[in-house]
Amino acid sequence: MSYVEDPGPGRGSVPPRAAFTSDAPSLSLNGTWRFRLSPSLAAAPDPVEADDSTWDELPVPSLWQLHGHGAPAYTNVHYPFPVDPPHVPSENPTGDHRLRFDLPASWPAGSALLRFDGIDSCGRIWLNGTELGVTKGSRLPSEFEVGALLRPRDNVLVVRVHQWSAGSYLEDQDMWWLSGIFRAVTLLARPSGGIGDYWLRADYDHTTGLGTVRVETGADVVLDIPSLGVVGHPAGEPLELPVEPWSAETPRLYDGTLSTVAERVPVRIGFRTVTIEDGQLKVNGRRLLLRGVNRHEHDPRTGRVVSRETALADVLLMKRHHINAVRTSHYPPDPAFLELCDEYGLWVVDECDLETHGFGPLGWDRNPSSEPMWTDAYLDRVRRTVERDKNRPSVILWSLGNESHTGDNLARMAEWVRHRDPTRPVHYEGDHECSYVDVHSRMYATPSEVERIGLREDTNERRRDLPFVLCEYAHAMGNGPGGLLEYRELFEKYPNCQGGFVWEWIDHGLAVPGHFAYGGDFGEPIHDGNFVIDGLLFPDRTPSPGLTEFAKIIEPVRISAVPAGLRISNHYDFVDTAHLRFTWVLEDEGTAVANGVLDVPAVHSGQSVALPLPSLPPTSGESWLTVTASLTSETAWASAGHVVGWGQVPVSAAPARPSPPTRGPVFRTSGQLLLGTGEFDAVTGTLTSLGGHPVIGPRLDVWRATTDNDRGSSPGPSEASQWLAAGLHRMQHRVITVDADGDELVVRTRVAPPAQPFGLFTDYTWTAFDGGLRLRVDVTPDGPVPDTLPRLGLAMAVPGTFGSAEWFGGGPGEAYPDSRQAVRIGRFSSSVDGLQTPYVFPQENGNRTAVRWAALTDPDGTGIRVEGDPTFDFTARRWTAAALEAARHTDELESGSLVHLTVDIAQHGLGTAACGPGVLPRYRLVPQKTSFALSFRPVAGGVAN
Ligand code: GAL
Which of these, 121, 225, 727, 826, is most buried using a 10 Å CB contact count? Predict the structure, then answer.
C-alpha cells in the first residue's frame, strides 16, 4: 500500500517531544521556496532529481490554494471524496516544494533535527537526495534527524505534499480543505549532552501557598529560577517553595532556565493544579466558570497560516472581551498561540487533530474510531499533542478530538493520556456515556437540558457526578447568538455546570475582491455554503455584535440596580476588585449632567456589595445613572480605563407629557387628503408627504430578511420556511375604508398574503397636532395566522438625503429581544450606512431597540423625527428587506435613492437554530391583537430635538 493510503502514522521521524527553543543554533527555513503542482501522484515527475528552475515560487508556510494553485473547498460534515477508507482519489493534487539553503558559517557538526510544525495532509521529505520519511497528522509537528546529511552549502530540501491521504479521513473538521506546508520549517542543531525533551511539572497547593516544581528530563540538567532564588536545582528532585499561583486571571509566570553544559533552555513556569473534586473542575482549589470560545486558526488571506501577530491579536481580543477560556477546535494550534495563552492568561482545552464526522451520515459504518487499522494513527496523534504541549500551564484539559463518534481507539487514546499525564483531565464530547472521559461534555444542549444536568437528574451515575461543560453552544452564525443570558443563569445556579465555549471565534471567510468568500464560491461541487461563517469576529477580526453581547453577558463585574441603590457583584473566579476604579455619569435625556467616582470597597470573588446611589443633582427629563468598572492601571492586554463591567440605574422617568391638542380637520383636495403637516393619498389613505418631505408609507410590515438562525439547520421546518410558506414576505394591503371626517383620518385595511385565508386587520388612526402627526395602529389577527411573525411594525421610505440618524434609546449597537444585554440607554448618532452590520452573508441586521425618539436628517439637519409611545425599534437602510434577503454577498447590496425605515413594536428573537435551540418561548413574537402609537414630525435644519 502506498504511504499515502497507509492508515498508520508517518514514518522516519524522531519520537515526539515538547515544543521549545534553546540557545542551540537554529535556522528558519521559512521563506520563498520553489513549487510545482501536479494533478496526481502518478502525474508528478520525480521531485528529487528535478530541475526546479522552471517551477513557480511559493512562500512557506502557505496553503497553495490561496496562492493561485487549485482552489479552496469547504465542507462541514461530508468528505469531498468517496468514503472508501483508507483510499483516496487518484486525482490527488501533489505539491512538490524545494528549497536550497546554506548553513551559517558557525553551524556546528553533529546531530540536527529538521522540524515541520504542520503539513496538510501528508508530506514525504528528502534532504540532499536521501529520503527522511513521511509525515501525517496535519496540525502536529514531525522532526527528522538530518545531522549526517547536512553540508555547508547548497543543501536541497524536497517536500512532496499530497492534498489527500489516509489521514484525511481523520481530518474532517468543519473548515476549508487547504493543502501545503502551512506552519514553520526549522532546522535545529542538537548539541550532544543537550536537552532533548523536558517536562516541567509545577503544581500549587492552595492550602499551603506552596508550589512544587520537578523537572523530568535527561540526567545532568539543572533548573534556575532567579526570582525564586532557585539556583542549579537538579532535575528529577521535587522542590517545594512559596510561590504565586498561575491562573487565567493572574497569569504569573516565573522565568527560569534549564541547562546542561551543552545547552540552555529558557522556561516559563506557571504553578497550578487542576483537580476534579465534588463533581467540579477546579484549579488551585477554585471552581472555574469557563467563559470560552472555540478557536479555529484563520486568517482571511492566508487561511490556517496564522502568524504570531494574528495569534496575539486573538488573545488580546479575547482578554478585552472577558473571555477566559479557549477550546482549540479541532486540532492543536500553532505552538505560539499556547505560549500567548500562558503569558496573557486563558484556560485552554487542547484538542487533538481528529474528526471523522463524515462517517456520521453513513451511520458510523466503518468509522475509524472503532477500526483496528487506525489505532496506531489515533495513538500517534494524541501522543504528539500531549508531548508537544505538556509544559503549558494554560492547558488544563486534553481533548481527544471532535465528532468522531465513539470506539476503542478513542478509549485507548484516553488511557494513554491518563497514564502519561495524570495531572490533566480528559475531555471528549463524543463519549456520551462518559466511560473514558473525566468531564461530561455536550454541544448545543438547550437550557432545559442543561438545567436537568444541573439538577443532577441524570440516571447515568458516572456522568451525573462529573463536571459538565458545553464544549460548543450559542452558534454565532450571522445575526446572533440569541439567548446567552439563560445559559449564564444556569452556569451560575448549578455548581457542576461550568460554562462552555461559544461556537465559534471567527468567521472563516476568505478575502476575494469586494467581499469575503464562503463555501461554493470556488465552484466546489459539494459544499456547505456559508456554514463556515459562524464566528463572533468577522473574517477581518472586527468584532460582531454577537461578541459585544457575549462580552456583556460574561463581564466579570456586574453592576445592577437594587431598591437601596446599586449592587456590585464580583464574578471573577480568583481576584477581588481592588484593581478596578468605579465611576459614574448621570445623563438627562442622554446628555451628561454630572459625574463622579464611586468609593467601592474591594469585593472578593463570588461576593457582592450593595451601595446607595451617589448624591445626584436634580434632572428634568428621563435620566439614567451609568456606573462603570474599569482597570485602574494598564495590564499586558489592555490600557488603564478598559471597561470590565457596567450597569445602569434609572433615576427619573420621563415626565408625563399631556397629548398635544389635536389640530384637525382633514381637508380633501383632488386625490389628496391634508391633515396638519401631512398629505395622504385619498384612495389608499397612506402618507405621501410630511412637512413637505416626500415619504412612502408607513404601512404595516411583518417581514425581515431572514437570518441564518431563522433559516435554521435542523431537519424540521424552520421559522423562515414557515414564514415563507405563509407568504409573510409578500403581504397585500386591501383598503377597506378611508374615513376622513372630522379631526381624524381613519384607514381600515386587511393585510394578507396571496393564497392564504388569514390576515391582519390593520387600522391606522391619524391625528394632527402642532408640528406633527400622531398615528395609532390597531392590529387584529384574522383567521389561522402563523405561530410567529418575524416582526410587527411599519415600513416606510424617506428621501435618501436623510442619511444621518440620531436617537435616544438603546445603543450604540444593534439589539434583538434575546440579544440586548450590551445596549444601554443613551443618546446616539450614526450615519445610515453606519447602522448596518455587514454580516458576510447579508441578512436582517442593525435593529435599534427601546428607542424613545429617532430623527433621520440630511446634512443640514432637515428631516423627520419619530417619537414612541413610549418606545419602538427601528432600522434604516438604503435597500429594501427584499434586496437584503436576495443578496448573497455584501457587495451585492446597492444603495438606492431612498432610505427605508422600519419602525416596530416587536421583533421575533434570534435564537441559535443555525445549530442548536431556536428562539425561547419568551422571545417569540406570537401574533395577537396589538395597538401601538407613534408621532411623526418634520424637522427643520438644526432643531432635531
Ligand atoms: C459542531 C462541530 C463544529 C461545527 C459546528 C457547527 O457539531 O463540532 O465543528 O461544525 O457543529 O458550526
Answer: 121
What is the rounded CA–CA span in Å between residue 543 and residue 837? 11
Distance CA 842, CA 892 (A): 9
Chain segment 612-635, per-residue pLDDT in tens: 999 999 999 999 999 999 999 999
* Strand arrangement of the beta sheet that strand 155-162 belongs to: 56-60, 31-38, 94-101, 155-162, 122-127, 130-136
Q: In this predicted structure, what is the pLDDT of residue 942?
A: 56
Q: Find out whether 240 and 255 touch, Cβ atoms under 8 Å.
A: no
Q: What is the pLDDT of residues 642-681, one digit of tens each?
A: 999 999 999 999 988 777 888 878 899 988 999 999 999 9
The 3-state secondary structure of 514-580 reads CEEECCCCCCCCCCCHHHHCCCCECCCCCECHHHHHHHHHCCCEEEEEECCEEEEEECCCCCCCCCE
Ligand 1 contacts CB of residue 503 (under 6 A): yes
Question: What gap in Å lies between CA 221 and CA 228, rounded to an integer?
Answer: 18
Of all residues in the chain, what percent carry a pLDDT higher than 70? 100
Domains, the chain, with CATH or none: 10-189 (2.60.120.260), 198-273 (2.60.40.10), 276-479+492-505 (3.20.20.80), 555-652 (2.60.40.10), 667-944 (2.70.98.10)
541 alpha carbon – ligand 1 mean position (Å)? 20
CA of 77 to the centre of ligand 1 (A): 9
Phi, psi of 663 (to 5 degrees): -125, 70
- 3-state DSSP assignment of residue 759: strand
- Per the DSSP assignment, residues forming a β-bridge with 575 are none
Ligand 1 center from residue 472 Cα (angstroms): 8
Which residue among 503, 518, 532 has the greatest number of ligand 1 atoms within 8 angstroms of its CB, and so is best to mutate? 503
Q: Amino acid letter at 453? A: I
Number of Cβ within a 10 Å radius of residue 571: 19
Q: What does each C-alpha distance from 730 to 724, 733, 754, 768 come to in angstroms?
A: 9, 10, 8, 31
The dihedral formed by the CA atoms of 465, 470, 471 and 475, expressed in degrees to the nearest 10:
170
Task: Evaluate whether 567 touches 560 at the Cβ level (below 8 Å).
Answer: yes
Query: What is the radius of gyration, based on Cα positions, of the chain?
Result: 31
